Description:
Shape: globular
Distance between the termini: 85 Å
Structural class: alpha/beta
Function: Catalyzes the sequential NAD-dependent oxidations of L-histidinol to L-histidinaldehyde and then to L-histidine.
Mean pLDDT: 94
Cofactor: Zn(2+)
Enzyme class: oxidoreductase
GO cellular component, one term: cytosol
Keywords: Amino-acid biosynthesis, Coiled coil, Histidine biosynthesis, Metal-binding, NAD, Oxidoreductase, Zinc
Amino acid sequence: MSQGLPVRVFEDLEQARNFLLRSRRLEQVELPPAVRQKVREVFGADLTAMEVVQRIVDDVRRHGDAALHRYSRAIDGLELAGFAVTEEEFARARAQVPEEIRQALALARDRIEAFHQRQIRQSWLHFEPAGGFGQLVRPLERVGVYAPAGRAPYPSSLLMSAVPARVAGVEEIVACAPPSPDGSVSPVILVAAELAGIDRVFKVGGAQAIAAMAYGTESIPRVDKIVGPGNIFVVLAKRLVYGDVDIDQLPGPTETLLIADASADPALCAADMLAQAEHDPLASAVLLTTDAGLAREVVAQLERQLTRLERASIAAESLATNGAVAVVPDLETAFELANAYAPEHLCLLIEEPWAYLDRVRHAGGVFVGESSPEVIGDYTAGPSHVMPTGQTARFSSPINVDTFVKVISVVAVNPQGLEALGPPAATLARAEGLTAHAAAIEQRLERRRPA
């Protein structure tokens, strides 16, 4: 690994592999000093992130709105009259958001809706001699969306979470968003909420918002599922309430892995890495390349382009902590490493990207070719950008229509089917020691036999 660069550079394959496959568990993330100080001020103790979340969730579950008001005062410094965003506040937001931004949000909404319309599943029934069997596909009744607004508001994430729910047919969608210092929700978040068809928005953020949606309070209704990204406290709260309510996933710090060969433009590789790194100091931007010369040029471009960024300090910390450029012997090795890493975003900046698409086994999303930057996926491509992170792409998917439906099995065995399927079912029941199970079948069979 080279030293004194804006990002780690690996020329040894095993060192690169060890770095990429290190643990990325949220519990191991150390809270920044300022956050730890705030924790001490609020709770009077030096708690871990999970201990903070446990206290907040338990408090909101027991005390409802009273707990939400306490945390609003202690954490946000706000004394709110109520948590629900009023129609007057929505009207002010409409007037404050420039038409150009509203049109861009509407375009994104339309693209997300059109993409997910193609995924809708229908209920089905199949009739055979033994009877009818099938599945009822039913949307969830009420979903809660978390709208992150920490370092900046993210209306795109609200659209990416809520629009697929609307397409799925969810009856009611509510959202929680952290309030600004003046006690309002960001106008662009409210405009996005209206465009997405969200029914109600509440001025609550953090773990307390997750607890409120999971268990319900006097102001905020209990939901069936909570979706959307957030900070470490939000994600850990989602983990804690899972089982009492469903969740989409546990999205951690965002991550991008680029695979590039000699045909790639080093300036664009660096731009894509920086676009990811500017999200958060914990974000990960990684480049795997078969060309050592490209690796050197990308590092030089990172140094050059960093100086032009408004969020240069965040991007620099991200690259120094979690970024990497690794030189690999061939594209086969690059894809093998990428599948082991299972990135949220996998970008193929190679000469023949379509020829390698079948090599992808684990990724939240694949961005094919140099003209398909991951940033387009963040906003206007169509698929939801709420994708699995931290190697969970090995077994989970981005938010999609199936996130918001459940499947009910249908079993309608007819008398002929009972004769055919009943005896072996009774045999299996007795093999498991469940004689009452067997008897429930055998009594029916006996009633069908002549006296």
